[in-house]
Structure formats: C-alpha cells, structure tokens
Amino acid sequence: MITNNFLEKSSEKQTHKTFKQITYEPIPLLADALTTSKIAKILEILDDEQWHTLGEIQQKMKLNKNQVEQIVTFLKKYNFIMVDETNREIKIEEIVRKFLTKKLLHKSL
After folding, report:
1. CA-based diameter of the chain, in Å?
2. Within its chain, how far is the Cα of 43 from the centroid?
3. pLDDT tens-digit profile of 65-91?
4. What is the DSSP letter of 29?
5. What are the φ/ψ torsions at residue 61 (nearest 5 degrees)?
6. Are the C-beta atoms of 61 and 93 separated by less than 8 Å?
7. Beta strands in the chain, from DSSP E residues, in sequence order
C-alpha cells in the first residue's frame, strides 16, 4: 500500500539485489508487461541525467499520480533512482544509466 508520503526515509540502507532476485520477488506492480514497459520508458526519460519532477513524469507518461508513485517507489527500493524528497524530484542513478547505456550499445552491435 502506498502512503501519502511515499518517499519516506528508510532507516536502513537498501542493499542491492541481483536481477534474478528482483525478477522472482512477488511484486504485484510488475505483474504485466505493460507496467514493465512503463518503467523502461521512465528510465529513458531519466537517461538525460537531469532531475525530473513527479508531475513532469506523470504528464509525459500520461499516468495518474498513484501509478507514478508506485513505479517511483519500486525504482527507489532497488536503487535505480535518486530522490530529492524536498522538491519531489527524481534522477537516475549513474551506475544504472551506465548499465542501460552499455546494454543498448551491445544490442545495436
């Protein structure tokens, strides 16, 4: 369940999980390919290394506030993004951006 303050600070540092752990962990949000596609599109938006407001993401993706919050919560949980809680902005983690860029380069070869 998403709370009003979905960007609550965690008292513990989230540890990195392998892709296999993420994939097999039961997450209702990722139940369909359409949601996975939305996550990929949000990561594409964030690939410019700039901060983006949640409202901007919501508008660009044509999603409702709850959908954006669920996806952002997932991305934050697995350290795909950085969150500026004061300004309610998100930015892709550099290591994730590099990983995605490297994967795309290998696909095009």
Report:
1. 44
2. 6
3. 999 999 999 999 999 999 999 999 999
4. G
5. -90, -10
6. no
7. 52-53, 81-84, 89-92
More confident residue, 103 or 17: 103
pLDDT band at 11 (very low <50, low <70, confident <90, very high): very low
| Domains of the chain, each with CATH number or no CATH | 29-108 (1.10.10.10)
Alpha-helical regions (H) of 1-109: 19-24, 33-46, 54-61, 65-77, 94-108
| Rounded-to-integer distance, Cα 70 and Cα 3, Å | 10
Q: Using alpha carbons, select from 71, 79, 76, 74 the residue that is nearest to residue 95.
A: 79
What's the Rg (C-alpha) of the chain?
Answer: 14
- For residues 26 and 43, give the distance between their C-alpha atoms in angstroms, rounded to a whole number: 21
DSSP strand pairing (52-53 vs 81-84): unpaired
Give 90's strand partners: 52, 83
Mean pLDDT of 40-58: 94
The pTM for the full model equals: 0.65
Average pLDDT of every residue of the chain? 77
Where is 103: in which H helix or E strand? helix 94-108
